[in-house]
Amino acid sequence: MPATEQDKISLPIHNWDALQELEEAQEFFSNDANGEVVRLLDENYRSPDTVGLNVGSSSGIADLANREALRLLEQERDHLSYFTGVCGAAGITSGAILNPAGFLLLALIYNPLSRVAKLGRTIKVMRLLLEEFKGVGIQIFPCLKVPGHELIDLFVIFPERVYLLISIRSKSKEEAKVVYSEGNETLYVKHKGRRLRKWQPCPLVELSDYHTWLSKNRRQFGISADAIRKYSVIKTLILFPPMQIERHNEHLYTKMGDMTALAIPRKGTIFVIQEAEILEFVKGCLTQAESKAKKKQ
After folding, report:
1. CB-based contacts of 276-279 (< 8 A; 24+ apart in sequence)
2. Given the DSSP bridges, would you call strands 232-239 and 243-245 parallel, antiparallel or unpaired?
3. What's the predicted TM-score (pTM) here?
C-alpha cells in the first residue's frame, strides 16, 4: 500500500527515497515484457494481411520475443529484490520494533516480497517451457493484466495446436493439501490439525474468467475467431511446494498423454497439477491435440 503524507514526514529522508523507488519498481516492468512479445511478433512473425498466425514463418522470431520477455521479468525480480533488501535494512536500522517509521518500512515491503516470490515461480515455469519446446514456435505471454483479477501468470500458444492458460500458486508456507469439493464446486486448503479453509480468491473461478477475457481479447495475440474455436484452451492450475494435491475420486482424473491429471469440471475443465508434472502435462496436451487433428483429417 502507498504511504500517506503523514508517514512520509515520520520517515528518515534516506529511507523514504528507498521506499519511493520500491513503489515505482512494482509497476515498471510487466507491461514492457508483454509489449516486447507483441512488438516483435507483429513486426516479424505475423502475416500483415491476416489476423491469424503465420506459422510458416521461422520460429526464431517467437523465441527472440520470449527470451526478451523472460529477461524483463528477471530484471523486475532483481530490481524488486534489491529495493526490498534496502528497505528491510533501513527498517531494521530504524528500529522496527520501537520505531513506527521502521515498522512501516518492513510492513510496506511485504507485498513486494510476495511479488518477488511470485516472479521467481513464473520465471521458473517460463524458462522450463522455453528450454523444452524451443524451435516449435511456442509463444509465451507472462503476467497479463485482467481487470478485477490477479494477473494471468502465463498464456502459452502452440500455433495451430493448443493454447494454455496457466495460474501458478503456492498459497501456504507450510505443508498443505488442496481439496476439491464436488458438492459446492469449491477448492479448499487443508493444513494438518486445522479445519478446511476456502481458497480465496478461488483459482477455479479466476481461470474461468480468464478464459472469458481471452475470448474477448484474442485479437491482441493474433488469434482468429476460427482458431479460438478450433484449438483447445487448456486451463491449468500449477501448485508449487509445499502445496500438494489431495487424492480425489477416480472419476475426476483424466489421461493426458502418459500421465493422469486431476480434471475439475467447472465451466469446462480445469486441470490441477504439481510443479514436477509440468513438462509431462504439456507434452500430454500436445499429444492429445495432435491425435485430435489426425482424427479430423
Report:
1. 278/125, 278/128, 278/129, 278/238, 279/128, 279/129, 279/132
2. unpaired
3. 0.75
* DSSP-assigned beta bridge partners for residue 83: none
Round to whole Å and give the CA distance between 257 and 288.
7
Q: Are residues 41 and 65 in contact, defined by beta-carbon separation less than 8 angstroms?
A: yes
For residue 217, what are the contacts with CB-CB under 8 A and spacing of at least 6? none
- Helices first, then strands: H and E counts in the chain: 9, 11
Q: How far is CA 175 from CA 88, 156, 170, 179, 237, in A?
A: 27, 29, 10, 13, 18
Residue pLDDT, tens place only, 106-158: 444 445 667 788 889 999 999 999 999 988 889 999 989 999 998 999 999 99
HSE-CB for 34 with a 13 A CA cutoff: 16
> In this structure, is the dihedral angle defined by the CA atoms of residues 147, 215, 168 and 267, taken in order, positive or negative?
positive
Distance CA 223, CA 201 (A): 29
